[in-house]
């Protein structure tokens, strides 16, 4: 059976160098040629083949450096943990694989955006204009889009399974007897780099599927559909305006938990009982949702999984996969007291 000493003799290096290379010692200063020669000789001598294969893979990954482009600002992440959790998932998976994040940039808060073509790949979180993405990184085969509203041709992407999520919400509300159902959500755009960030407006998929389902039932009322900013205050203000209308829905699907929490406050202030007079369903299942009064029925999403999946897709691309993939991550409806169907 081959030993480290045998490998060292054929590679013309010390046994200590072989040991450190085969253990992927990052502090070792040795040429890439020497590393490859040591791994090649170890394979030829059949030195612990399964371990060598794993170590070669780890060594190769440890030399990869990717970029991360986020549209959300640190303030956005503070107010809505959804974006923070996506980033955390990316960082966790990169750490597990030994991939370095060489550069992090934020489109909504950095005026000077520099190309990242010197890196091995790029993950883009948020709906960024395709032309601007190509300016950031010219090789679309090494770019993964996370949470992009559109499915851009040639790019890998990962997003939530919005269609099923909204259908789960609506079917639950229908099962409780609701036909007069409202919608509150945020305004969506395809963002552009530069001073005027907001580019082309687009409909959020939650609104698209809500309107589709209600139209199919013949129950859609445009006056019950409202959009604003993705903030707690916006949810509060929209609900206040909705309550001034002569008619109001008996239930409301709200496309984010922070907006739903703002809407709940407006309902409490106006003395509208939840869920007796208006049922509320949110989206995200942020931690505080279980502790508001009443506890919020909501769609549980898995943003960390979005981030981890993005890293995995990028790794596959770097390893040679040629066909772009569009991955959807499932959600779960969490039923609590705000819609009247909780336990």
UniProtKB/TrEMBL annotation:
Coiled coil: none annotated. InterPro entries: HTH_LacI, LacI/GalR-like_sensor, Lambda_DNA-bd_dom_sf, Peripla_BP_I. The keyword Transcription regulation applies. This is LacI family DNA-binding transcriptional regulator. One of its GO terms (molecular function) is DNA binding. The keyword Ribonucleoprotein does not apply. Residues 2-57 form the HTH lacI-type domain. PROSITE patterns: HTH_LACI_1, HTH_LACI_2. Keywords: DNA-binding, Transcription, Transcription regulation.
């Amino acid at each position: 059976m081959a030993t480290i000493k045998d490998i060292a003799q054929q590679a013309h290096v010390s046994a200590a160098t072989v040991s450190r290379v085969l253990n992927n010692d990052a502090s070792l200063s040795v040429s890439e040629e020497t590393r490859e020669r040591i791994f090649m000789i170890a394979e030829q001598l059949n030195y612990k083949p399964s371990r060598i294969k794993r170590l070669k893979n780890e060594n190769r990954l440890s030399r990869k450096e990717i970029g991360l482009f986020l549209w959300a600002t640190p303030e956005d992440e503070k107010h809505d943990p959804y974006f923070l959790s996506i980033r955390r998932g990316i960082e966790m998976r990169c750490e597990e694989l030994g991939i370095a994040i060489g550069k992090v940039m934020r489109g909504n808060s950095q005026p000077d955006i520099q190309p990242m073509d010197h890196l091995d790949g790029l993950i883009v979180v948020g709906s960024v204009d395709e032309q601007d993405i190509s300016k950031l990184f010219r090789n679309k085969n090494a770019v993964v889009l996370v949470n992009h509203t559109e499915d851009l041709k040639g790019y890998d992407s990962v997003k939530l399974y919005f269609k099923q999520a909204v259908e789960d919400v609506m079917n639950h509300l229908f099962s409780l007897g609701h036909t007069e159902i409202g919608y509150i959500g945020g305004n969506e755009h395809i963002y552009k780099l530069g001073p005027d960030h907001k580019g082309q407006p687009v409909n959020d998929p939650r609104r698209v599927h809500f309107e589709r389902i209600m139209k199919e039932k013949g129950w859609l009322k445009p006056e019950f559909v409202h959009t604003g900013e993705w903030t707690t205050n916006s949810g509060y203000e929209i609900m206040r305006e909705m309550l001034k209308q002569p008619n109001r829905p008996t239930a409301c699907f709200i496309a984010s938990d922070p907006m739903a929490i703002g809407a709940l406050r407006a309902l409490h202030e106006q003395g509208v009982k939840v869920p007796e007079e208006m049922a509320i369903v949110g989206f995200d299942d942020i931690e505080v949702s279980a502790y508001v009064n009443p506890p919020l029925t909501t769609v549980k999403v898995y943003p960390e999984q979005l981030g981890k999946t993005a890293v995995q897709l990028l790794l596959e691309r770097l390893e040679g996969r040629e066909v772009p993939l569009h991955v959807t991550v499932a959600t779960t409806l969490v039923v609590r007291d705000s819609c009247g169907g909780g336990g």
